[in-house]
Amino acid sequence: MKKFFTTLSNIWKIEDLRVRIINTLLFLLIYRVGSFVVLPGVNGASFANQKAEGLVGLLNMFAGGSFSRASIFALGVMPYISASIVVQLLGIAVPYFTKLQKEGESGRNKLNQWTRYLTIGITALQAIGYVRSQIGPDARLISDPLFTLLTTVVLTAGTLFVMWLGEKITDKGIGNGISLIIMVGIIAQLPGAFITEFSSRTSGTGGLVTFIVEIVALIGVVMFTILIVQGTRKIAVQYAKRIVGNKQYGGVRQYIPLKVNAAGVMPIIFAQALMFIPATVQQFFPKAASNGILIAMSNSNSWQHNTVFGILIILFTYFYTAITVNPNQMADDMKKNGGFIPGIKPGKSTADFIDGVISKITLPGSIFLAIIAIIPAIASLVGVSPIFARFFGGTSLIILVGVVLDTLQQIESHLLMRHYDGLMKTGRIKGRTAMPAAAGTSPTVI
């Protein structure tokens, strides 16, 4: 405990770090206050007891409850995330975007500009869909088409403002701004879910002992998720010795850390998008609502749904790892810098060796990721409330663990730069530092 307070004191002593933490908290406070501001022309009282389930519940969690409150930040940063993913995929499929990725800072600035333009278009389309699906006629105080136009403009402006807040946090705060905004939105749902589960257990079935068992299980799942996020396979790389003047360069052994889960949370997001197709088909085709397969696939707790969900996650993990990690580029960069893997010839042999290692570690990584993704369904089946079960795994837990590790890693870096002790007695905190990928490819913010 004494070391903990000493570390807090050291953090406060570093002026730059202190200012960055305060700025981050202020920007996040602005975001949370804005999430309670209801859209103009909407009767906020009609959303008081609205429950968000399924895809809506997932979006509502990422938006910190703004989605179900019809807030000006209802769409959150999800349109920006979608635009970032599209631009990242275009960088692999379209030569123009591939060229921009290789142009350094100027290319990244152009890609960021394209991402912002695409965010505006995606937000406008999602805003129209939000108005039609979530805001009923009884909640509208203004008649159409003025209401739809006004709400679309406000929701688009709200998303752009949240995106600006995220960029300011990254620039003047600590950690990745967009990731922190998503994390705060998820954490905002935790106290309510915790209280609801505690009340249901103490006043209903299970009792306090069952609730304690659930908390212990949650801690175990978090520890397991940390192992997956931080797990790496190190490949030794030897650099040739060079003498320049009176100084020696190279001649040392370093390591390439290949992530066990290089794809991060993206496979779960892609798989979830496909798993919502059966429910969408039922909504647009009422005659198909009685189909047994569609009913089973629409039930997130059924074994059919979770089996297909797990298989899709494994496939998407391989797919996303293949398009984001480029062994050929890694081998070329290593050769240009005079590096080689002991016992492996430079060039194609090195690329094949790295590709083989990635293929071997991706399989257990994808399986573990699928297990984490279906744990919430297992928790629901054993009696955990659906709201609290979401924190037992899936997208939300992986994002929480990754963002917290990244932020703590940055704080520890500031401490070590000023010759203070780190946050841990042994070793250093490892965040989600991306493995070497295709040249110019920037990792997705989450």
UniProtKB/TrEMBL annotation:
<dbReference type="InterPro" id="IPR002208">
    <property type="entry name" value="SecY/SEC61-alpha"/>
</dbReference>
<feature type="transmembrane region" description="Helical">
    <location>
        <begin position="263"/>
        <end position="285"/>
    </location>
</feature>
<feature type="transmembrane region" description="Helical">
    <location>
        <begin position="178"/>
        <end position="196"/>
    </location>
</feature>
<feature type="transmembrane region" description="Helical">
    <location>
        <begin position="147"/>
        <end position="166"/>
    </location>
</feature>
<feature type="transmembrane region" description="Helical">
    <location>
        <begin position="305"/>
        <end position="325"/>
    </location>
</feature>
<feature type="transmembrane region" description="Helical">
    <location>
        <begin position="72"/>
        <end position="97"/>
    </location>
</feature>
<keyword id="KW-1133">Transmembrane helix</keyword>
<keyword id="KW-0472">Membrane</keyword>
<protein>
    <recommendedName>
        <fullName>Protein translocase subunit SecY</fullName>
    </recommendedName>
</protein>
<dbReference type="InterPro" id="IPR030659">
    <property type="entry name" value="SecY_CS"/>
</dbReference>
<dbReference type="GO" id="GO:0043952">
    <property type="term" value="P:protein transport by the Sec complex"/>
</dbReference>
<dbReference type="GO" id="GO:0005886">
    <property type="term" value="C:plasma membrane"/>
</dbReference>
<dbReference type="InterPro" id="IPR026593">
    <property type="entry name" value="SecY"/>
</dbReference>
<dbReference type="GO" id="GO:0065002">
    <property type="term" value="P:intracellular protein transmembrane transport"/>
</dbReference>
<keyword id="KW-0811">Translocation</keyword>
<keyword id="KW-0812">Transmembrane</keyword>
<keyword id="KW-1003">Cell membrane</keyword>
<dbReference type="GO" id="GO:0006605">
    <property type="term" value="P:protein targeting"/>
</dbReference>
<feature type="transmembrane region" description="Helical">
    <location>
        <begin position="21"/>
        <end position="42"/>
    </location>
</feature>
<comment type="function">
    <text>The central subunit of the protein translocation channel SecYEG. Consists of two halves formed by TMs 1-5 and 6-10. These two domains form a lateral gate at the front which open onto the bilayer between TMs 2 and 7, and are clamped together by SecE at the back. The channel is closed by both a pore ring composed of hydrophobic SecY resides and a short helix (helix 2A) on the extracellular side of the membrane which forms a plug. The plug probably moves laterally to allow the channel to open. The ring and the pore may move independently.</text>
</comment>
<comment type="similarity">
    <text>Belongs to the SecY/SEC61-alpha family.</text>
</comment>
<dbReference type="InterPro" id="IPR023201">
    <property type="entry name" value="SecY_dom_sf"/>
</dbReference>
<feature type="transmembrane region" description="Helical">
    <location>
        <begin position="208"/>
        <end position="229"/>
    </location>
</feature>
<comment type="subunit">
    <text>Component of the Sec protein translocase complex. Heterotrimer consisting of SecY, SecE and SecG subunits. The heterotrimers can form oligomers, although 1 heterotrimer is thought to be able to translocate proteins. Interacts with the ribosome. Interacts with SecDF, and other proteins may be involved. Interacts with SecA.</text>
</comment>
<feature type="transmembrane region" description="Helical">
    <location>
        <begin position="361"/>
        <end position="381"/>
    </location>
</feature>
<keyword id="KW-0813">Transport</keyword>
<keyword id="KW-0653">Protein transport</keyword>
<feature type="transmembrane region" description="Helical">
    <location>
        <begin position="117"/>
        <end position="135"/>
    </location>
</feature>
<dbReference type="Pfam" id="PF00344">
    <property type="entry name" value="SecY"/>
</dbReference>
